[in-house]
Sequence to fold (453 residues):
Amino acid sequence: MARPRILVVGAGFAGVACVRRLERKLVPGEAEICLVTPFSYQLYLPLLPQVASGVLTPQSVAVSLRRSKKHRTRIVPGGAIGVDPKAKICVVRKITGEIVDLPYDYIVLAPGSITRTFDIPGLLDNARGMKTLAEAAYIRDHVIAQLDLADASADERERESRLRFVVVGGGYAGTETAASLQRLTDHALRRYPRLDPKQIKWHLIDIAPKLMPELGDRLGRTALGILRKRGIEVSLGVSVAKAGPEEVTFTDGRVLPCRTLIWTAGVAASPLVSTFDADKVRGRLVVSPELRVTALDGVFALGDAAAAPDLTKGGDAICPPTAQHALRQGRTAADNVIAAVRRQPLRRYEHKDLGLVVDLGGRDAVSKPMGVELRGMPAQAVARGYHWSALQTNVAKARVLTNWVLNAVAGDDFVRTGFQAQKPATLHDFEYTDAYLTPDQVREHARTLIARG
Fold:
């Protein structure tokens, strides 16, 4: 009898947690495990702003998937661009561009999310995201390049546009990105004596009326005060009306010279989700408490791809797309896939939120572990302790801790690697959002494959 084929799509928190659990709990030879991911590492997303600011090296937040002592998963380097649940076939575009078809008996969908954008003139061509390791490395190079070019320029208007930075999005990603990069440019002034400190201006804008409302009013006001004390101009109830290569127009009518627009205004489920004919909530697949897409045989969905019911809150509440939920959903999904293989009862996913942490760089942070509000160094200790403990390997923990200590002792470096130096990169260049098939294309592809035998 053929072994069941388990296919996991995505190597984020949910996908990797699922694979690791499967490797530990399945008897060798009991099932085939395959993982589809463009990169053979798990990216620790919450620390990307520290990569962009140079506090951490890119390698320290990219945890190799091949370090597992029980590694026996076949890794296919590519991205899933469509799934036919009836034929039980996943269509994958490998990093070479080759299209391959992977049959499965059980599929775990954890493709993550993409940067959410809107129909704003010039946005896709002139904004940069903070969703991938490449984007973080690119933004660091770009910000330092603006300092170098402004320092070398005698044109005051050029200097003004190069030294103004706009971050859109008052959530965790945007707030931490603005805070981390502002510290970088502030420290850089010692190395750029020709630059006027008053010309370096950071703006954080968000259409919402509050900064990080999930933290509550008091901590939100504390974070807002920290940013403004550092000189970051925070504008709430405001977004971008138009984005150009050298200026940005806000919805309140302001037109600012600016060559750096960082877009972190939320995320949307991977376009892979839209290829399924199944119920969705806010663009995410509706799943049962056991994380199954009930209308589709052998399909589980997790993390940003799934609208999983939050049993701790009840009612119509769904789990927020956070790392702590994704990690635990991955483990539950693995247990349920194994239970399905062994024809055992499935268990429901239930987890009470542990709280939130926001690292604003240096000694500044706000945290709310288990509902307890913290500020300053205690909050920073909790934030970094949480991130450090969540890293999956001792090697990653050692690298991150070493980077933190080295940065605290030696300070920042202002070195450009030359990443994408000759070609401005767009959101599509980094996130491949235009690579997916439509549901009809997936079905036609499957029919052709079946006809060929």
Observations:
- The CA atoms of residues 12 and 226 lie 31 Å apart.
- The mean pLDDT is 91.
- The two ends are 21 Å apart (CA to CA).
- Residues 133-152 form the longest helix (20 residues).
